[in-house]
Amino acid sequence: MKAVVVRAPMEYDVEEVPVPPAPPGGFLLKVHSCGLCGSDLRTLRGGHLRVTFPWIIGHEVAGWVHALGEGYPGPWKVGDLLAVAPFVYCGKCDFCQTGKYELCENYREIAQAWPGGFAEYMAVPPEAARNGIIQPVPEGLDAALAAISEPISSCVHAQEKGWVGLGDTVVVIGSGPVGCTHVMLARARGAARVFLADVSADRLKMAEVFAPDALINAAQTDLVAEVRRLTGGKGADVIVTANSVPSTQVQAVEMARKGGRVLLFGGLPKTDSKPQIDMNIVHYNGLYLIGTTTLGPRHQFQALQLLASGRYPFDKLITHRYPLAEFKQGATLALEGKALKAVFFP
């Protein structure tokens, strides 16, 4: 079968590799589509602590059950079209035991612990079949959209924790696919106004289709001052840092309204992960700093239902569709920041 094999940072291509067998207790997925994630781009650029090259990456996957492994207990059957998120929970820690799967202490991921979905076929191991996040693709939903439900599900989790709701003014810093997703989710949850900021005019231009109430070019204006101006000096109820730039977390605290919530969605570089936040602002203004990562099964379920409703233009997140054979072309475009979301089809 054809698969994307990464052999070293910035050394990758589509190669012929053996089709994996259906693992005992698991199943073999015939891949319909696989989305290219920001973490994939970081792996392509510089490798990943949990990935040993050569390796098949890709963790935003949708596909059909092609074959069942010996002893697979169900519930899926051959021909089922599924959205497969990467997270696989241990099922044993106290968080898993109390249903807080997104906080699992020992989770592993498809495309890290097991080969990923930039391939014609992907083996779903018994651990994922038993304790992974797998949902049927809702009838009528584009399976490519279902494939990218994983990052959307993570955003659902973040806004759940941040109590985004009716009447809120929300600022999203970062206009990549995650930032644009947060814009739509804030709308869905009843936010009154949503502002989107970035330092790239090109990225902001691509985000126009999601109709934020204001697009702010932070390279041309003082972001904190502009948010204060737009809110009559009060600041925003919710700020989402949908990027990996430490200074934006400082700005988020400075632009928050009293009692505001700062959703620290983007992880920071390991060498620069301690931004100089004025904690007196947090203390005296009663702010909430909320970290989120990963997702639970309920978040993927909610995301797929929202996607299937068609009420919001999530389909516009996918700006480029490529056959898997053209992975290098699509990845290059994404690495250059010229694609919002690229999805590949074996």
Number of discrete helical segments: 12
- Which structural class best describes the helix and strand composition? alpha/beta
Q: β content, as a range?
A: 25-35%
Low-confidence spans: none
Q: What is the H level of CATH, i.e. the homologous superfamily of the largest domain?
A: Medium-chain alcohol dehydrogenases, catalytic domain
The count of β-strands is: 17
**Residue share in helix:** 25-40%
CATH architectural category of the largest domain: Alpha-Beta Complex
The coarse overall form would be globular
The tally of domains stands at: 2
List the secondary-structure elements in sequence, H or E.
EEEHEEEHEEHEHHEHEHEHEHEHEHEHE
For the termini, the CA-CA separation is: 9 Å
Biggest β-sheet description: 8 strands, mixed
CATH class of the largest domain: Alpha Beta
Mean pLDDT: 97
Q: Rounded to an integer, what's the Rg over CA atoms?
A: 20 Å
Look up the CATH topology of the largest domain: Quinone Oxidoreductase, Chain A, domain 1
